[in-house]
């Protein structure tokens, strides 16, 4: 769409045939500084019964973050079609989300592991960081090493 004056603000992230990243859920929308200069890091995934991502270990971000889970049942958009388990704070307080929901994560707030269970229908999972590039710092001492080995984690400083 970049051939128009404002088309560069519209991004279609549909992969070309053969471009799907193995081991990741379907990315249905994406933004960030590498896509549109100055935009927040934003990614929307489709979590589905045929692909459930591995748990994501505890971590912090250098900026605030919003996580959104949206059900896709046209008759009941609040029914998530699965469970999202997420721990919050250094106490690892567990929350189980079964309805469409938004989770606010303050700057440098410890959150996760996050994991997906009993997924019977696809739902949309959105991550939006208040920065142009993703930042993440693992907090490894909260989870025993044998559990941590089954989780994904990233160490990214936003560069």
Summarize the structure.
With 159 residues, the protein is mainly β. The chain contains 1 helix and 11 strands, in the order ββββββββββαβ. It is globular.
How would you describe this protein?
The radius of gyration is 16 Å and the shape is globular. It has 1 helix and 11 strands. By secondary structure, it is mostly beta strands. The mean pLDDT is 88. The two termini are 27 Å apart. Strand 5 and strand 6 form a beta hairpin. The protein has one domain (23-154): Sandwich (Jelly Rolls). The strands form 3 sheets. It has a 5-stranded antiparallel β-sheet, with no helix packed on it.
Defining key terms:
three-stranded antiparallel β-sheet, five-stranded antiparallel β-sheet, 1 helix, mainly beta, 11 strands, 40% strand, Jelly Rolls, 159 residues, globular
Rg, rounded, reads: 16 Å
- pLDDT below 50 for ≥5 consecutive residues: which ranges? none
Residue-averaged pLDDT, rounded?
88
Overall structural class, as computed from helix and strand content, comes to mainly beta
Q: What top-tier CATH class fits best? A: Mainly Beta
Compute the number of helices.
1
In the sheet with the most strands, the strands line up as 1-2-9-4-7
Portion of residues within helices: under 10%
């Amino acid at each position: 769409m970049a051939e128009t004056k404002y088309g560069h603000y519209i991004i279609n992230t549909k992969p070309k045939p053969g471009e799907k990243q193995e081991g990741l859920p379907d990315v249905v929308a994406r933004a960030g500084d590498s896509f549109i200069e100055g935009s927040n890091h934003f990614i929307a995934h489709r979590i589905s019964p045929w692909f459930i991502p591995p748990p994501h270990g505890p971590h912090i971000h250098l900026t605030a973050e919003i996580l959104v889970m949206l059900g896709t049942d046209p008759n009941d958009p609040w029914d998530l079609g699965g469970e999202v388990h997420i721990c919050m704070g250094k106490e690892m307080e567990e929350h189980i989300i079964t309805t469409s929901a938004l989770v606010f994560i303050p700057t440098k707030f410890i959150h996760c592991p996050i994991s997906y269970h009993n997924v019977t229908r696809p739902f949309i999972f959105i991550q939006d960081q208040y920065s142009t590039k993703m930042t993440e710092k693992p907090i490894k001492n909260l989870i025993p090493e044998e559990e941590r080995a089954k989780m994904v984690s990233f160490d990214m400083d936003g560069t």
